[in-house]
């Protein structure tokens, strides 16, 4: 929601038109580097007043892995969240190590679930826009990364090519060409292969020894083959 203007505006409109007896609770995880911190194990309640939205703010220590690396978007994101949910309840991390480990594992699972759901929605959107459909799309679980729009479009393009290469007959339903989840998997495998190659090349470039500052700057401008075309 945060960072997407259209979704934010739509949700804001829905919240403003809710009945007075409805309370909406949202949750947001962020790094615990704020100036104002409550005591460990305590809950920070803000005055609810007439507002019917509340935010559960999950506080994390600085050394806990980031669920989303969006540091540049954080200020804008937090402003949007705060506008929709001005009343905040801060939930501190469990102090017991066993409970803390379980807490983190649950958050990791939730993060993977959200990524998988978001990727399916993105793929479905591009498929619909392209006049395609994949009935068994939900059978895929893409939880290792959040796919960017450009990546999703490439995956669908490769999936369509795979479909044409392996299907002798075109199945059309509701004016949409039906492709299988196997074709989508093929597109995803190509994307993962390119990403792995790109990471490997960048790592090898870092290992290159430069003799002067000019060569160092020039090396930083090298474009991986996968990024060309």
Automatic annotation (TrEMBL):
GO terms for cellular component: mitochondrial outer membrane. GO terms for molecular function: ATP binding. Coiled coil: none annotated. The keyword rRNA processing does not apply. It comes from Gossypium raimondii (Peruvian cotton). Residues 132-192 form the DUF7751 domain. This is DUF7751 domain-containing protein. Keywords: ATP-binding, Nucleotide-binding.
């Amino acid at each position: 929601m945060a960072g997407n203007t259209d979704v934010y505006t739509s949700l804001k409109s829905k919240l403003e038109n809710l009945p007075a007896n409805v309370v909406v609770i949202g949750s947001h995880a962020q790094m615990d580097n704020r100036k104002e911190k409550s005591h460990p194990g305590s809950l920070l309640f803000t005055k609810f007043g007439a507002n019917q939205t509340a935010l559960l703010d999950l506080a994390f220590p600085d050394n806990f892995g980031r669920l989303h690396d969006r540091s540049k978007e954080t200020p804008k994101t937090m402003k949007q969240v705060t506008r929709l949910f001005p009343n905040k309840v801060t939930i501190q991390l469990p102090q017991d190590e066993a409970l803390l480990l379980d807490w983190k594992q649950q958050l990791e699972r939730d993060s993977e679930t959200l990524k998988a759901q978001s990727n399916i929605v993105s793929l479905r959107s591009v498929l619909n826009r392209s006049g395609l459909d994949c009935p068994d799309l939900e059978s895929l679980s893409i939880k290792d990364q959040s796919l960017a729009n450009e990546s999703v479009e490439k995956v669908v393009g490769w999936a369509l090519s795979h479909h044409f290469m392996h299907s002798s007959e075109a199945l059309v339903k509701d004016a949409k060409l039906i492709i299988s989840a196997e074709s989508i998997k093929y597109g995803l495998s190509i994307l993962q292969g390119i990403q792995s190659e790109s990471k490997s090349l960048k790592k090898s470039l870092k290992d290159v020894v430069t003799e002067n500052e000019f060569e160092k700057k020039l090396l930083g401008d090298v474009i991986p083959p996968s990024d060309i075309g």
